[in-house]
Amino acid sequence: MPVIRRDSTPPALVVKYYLYEATATYGFFWPVFTLFLLSRDLTFAQIGLLGSLSAAASVLGEIPTGYVADRLGRRVALALGSALLSVSLVGHVVARGFPAFAALWVLWGAGRAFRSGSADAWLYDALEDRLDAADAFTRIRGRGSSVNQTVSAVSMLTAGALYAVDDRLPLVLGAVVAAAAIPVVWTFPTPETRAADAESAAGFAETLRVVRATLTAPALRRVVLYAAVVFAAVGAVDTFIQPVTTTTLGFPEAALGPLYAAFSVASAVAGYAAPRIERALSPRRALAVLPAFVAAALALPVVAPLAALPAFVAAKAGRAAVDPILGGHLNDHASAVGRATLLSAASLLYALVRVPAKPAAGALADATTPLCAVAAVGACLLFAAGLFAVSDASTGTRPQNESA
């Protein structure tokens, strides 16, 4: 079978994957989302609680939705997830009061649960079955992330201006883009291995047994738990970008679009560079070094507020580089039929850590300042990165280049 070459025209299925990544952007509304919620009389603690409710919905839905993706197909899961996200955004336009927003964020969490892991599982299977190129996953996944971030950068440039005209416009456009993902994923081919094995797939209980055994194996256990801390930390910091920029640093709201566009450009570069970072450091070392760099950057703004902007850039770029490296590591340890279930189970663990992290950081920001909360998150992340590096070294883990 043909193998993807660096200098060749991307095969059709890869182009479709890139198109899906282009529609998976939150660029129109994310730069002003916190400001939108604050304008609806929500506090930082309530906004953090919304994130926890979304994470809780993911916790309850990750395994069932992953199983749906394995049994009914990745396309079904991706389409359902995109539809739920679109409906949630439309609901924000008319919602009033914390209970209404809470219900919409539960819906948002369910949508994310359907999409989490499904795109990665489809891509890995498709590369393996149709192109004999599963080893290209990190590269294609990283470039897909770059496509997503590039589209996000362009759309984010308009977010502040749209918000100034009508604070509902960014959400309406976000809903339209989320819905546009549905016809895209319906063109995805079904990997031959998944289609052939679906009929003989294990039952739900047996699938859970296999997933539990895989996730608790030494090769994955520490990585997944540590990744959960990394993602929770970056997610908590994201809550404070908008108030720090507009209130603490005094930038106008119109500056948020270019700022988030800069985040996306940095993330696109980081995602594109992920395979090189993986080869240079090994995946496990990269997973230790990148978050440690982010953590150090997050500690600076508490004494030098202007350092918050490069710190936020570092957080976004670090997350973008970690995503494809971590995804490749998990996929390498997953069987084809249970791949989406395994990835959803990992996402469930990530969500479990996010549940207390966001409201805790929000409460700390309410009691002190957003910059103090950012520094505290950075300190926790630095401790986790150090613990992960030491535990890996003490067990003599080989570089993931070879096996992991």
From TrEMBL:
The chain crosses the membrane at residues 17-37, 44-63, 83-108, 171-188, 223-242, 254-274, 286-313, 364-390. PANTHER family: PERMEASE, MAJOR FACILITATOR SUPERFAMILY-RELATED (PTHR23530:SF1), TRANSPORT PROTEIN-RELATED (PTHR23530). InterPro entries: MFS (IPR011701), MFS_DHA3_Transporter (IPR053160), MFS_trans_sf (IPR036259), Sugar_transporter_CS (IPR005829). Pfam families: MFS_1. This is MFS transporter. Signal peptide: none annotated. GO terms for molecular function: transmembrane transporter activity. It is a multi-pass membrane protein. Keywords: Membrane, Transmembrane, Transmembrane helix. It comes from the Archaea. It is found in: Membrane. Its main location: membrane.
